Amino acid sequence: MKSKHTAFFFASFLILTTLCTSVYAQSQDSITFTTTVWKTNTLKRGISWKQANITGLFDSRQEINIIEINLKKHGKALRLAALSHGLEKTSVLAKSHNAIVAINGGFFNMKDGGAVDFIKVDRQIVNTTANHSSRANAYLAFDSKNVLISSDSTQVSSFPNILLSGPFLLKNGQEAILSKNAFNDNRHPRTAIAIKGNNLILFTVDGRNANSQGLSLTELAKIFRWYGCQDAMNLDGGGSTTMYIKGQTEQGVVNYPSDNKQFDHLGERAVANIIYLLN
Q: Signal peptide: which range, if any (predicted)?
């Protein structure tokens, strides 16, 4: 009997220790992120750009760029640009559409171009979903008055601009339950978008380099929660991850795209669509 009690208490101790360690680690990561001193630039009244290289976050180093857009001032300028076929770099698409800021959008056919998930621009369907994927479970939808990030296709169906991507990361401030798989769990460069009160958040984190290792989607969701966002969704990441800001050097590319395997601003991958703000 004594040995059974000993085994029970030892197992309970291990479980408690593991839980306490996990909570402590999350607390430390939260403190690391929320106390980060950001390099901040005002691009235009109501549009700010924040950049930081953070060490010690999730026991890693991360290069993060955030653009925060006041939707009350600039919501009417939000746009999608999409190619039904073919591919082009985010910076080139952004410049051709007179964007002040832009990020790459949803997943695409790397051989033929065009989105692999549903996308509608100015009421015109550019691409339909090629193959349904559990990964693509979130919609960015907007018109001149409203911007939504939603998992409900019925809720967004009437909007003139819709981009399907994912996975969904945050809903009403709560982290989504993510499947256990390599795409979600491994660290990669990531592009994502979120809503924080009246602000739209455009987000990139670089990866595949010692200067920035990238994030899992669980880590990304935690960052959005710590940042005070209500809803958030993942977009196409990896070598596609690109953030453009008009007037910046290096063709306006401010992050470190990884497609050339160098930590510079020259490794852009051609993509099929972007999310941008009209200048």
A: 1-25
Q: How many C-beta atoms surround the C-beta of residue 29 within 10 A? A: 20
Buried residues in 154-183 as b, exposed as e (16+ CB within 10 A): eebeebebbbbbbbbbbbeeebbebeeeee
Global confidence as pTM: 0.91
Beta strands in 58-142 (DSSP E): 60-70, 78-82, 88-89, 99-104, 119-121, 124-127, 138-142
Nearest to 243 by CA among 256, 232, 259: 256
Give the single-character DSSP code of 84: S
Contact 169, 234 (CB under 8 A): yes
Give tens-digit pLDDT for 2-25. 555 555 555 544 454 444 545 555
Q: Largest Cα–Cα distance in the chain?
A: 77
Q: Which residues does residue 69 pair with via DSSP β-bridges, in sequence order?
A: 47, 200
What are the φ/ψ torsions at residue 226 (nearest 5 degrees)?
Answer: -65, -30
Dump pLDDT digits (tens) for 83-122. 999 999 999 999 999 999 999 999 999 999 999 999 999 9
Q: Using CA atoms, how far apart are residues 233 and 150, in angstroms rounded to an integer?
A: 9
Q: Which phi and psi (to 5°) does residue 151 adopt?
A: -100, 0
CA pair distance 198, 46, nearest whole angstrom: 11
